[in-house]
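Chain A, query sequence.
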Amino acid sequence: MNNKFPVCGLSTVALDWAVATVEGLPIQHNPMGFSDCQQAGYWVWDDHAKKRPYQLIGYQYHPSSNWSQAGEIIFKYGIATRPGKSDSWIANLGDFEHQGDSPMEAAMRCYVESRLGCIVTLPLPLIRIWQKSQLTHQAIA
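Chain A, predicted structure.
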């Protein structure tokens, strides 16, 4: 299975994982040993954090869709966002420009590419989680 993906195609839990990686957050895969369920994913797992030490990536930690989390990064790095064509958004960070379904998604893609490059290597278990979340999202839509 290919585990290299262009940043422009990252979304939901895969993009959130990439942001956590860039932020240098302590990430653990299934630290509590759950069987195959939602909680068996990747976690920001910081025993020393004063606020929210354990956050499931894509759920409690989701800067690709959460203004309070994305906003800190957007303001810190001066990422500009603007409406694009149709229902899309465009974000710019220096020489990097990305499109997304929301300003947060576009901005987080810019942020990730500015630090990791245009191709990101994802862990195989994360790819499976991401694929399941995409199927669920498509079924709801």
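Residues 4-140 form a domain with the Bacillus phage protein fold (CATH 3.30.2120.10). Helices lie at 12-22, 67-77, 103-116, 124-140.
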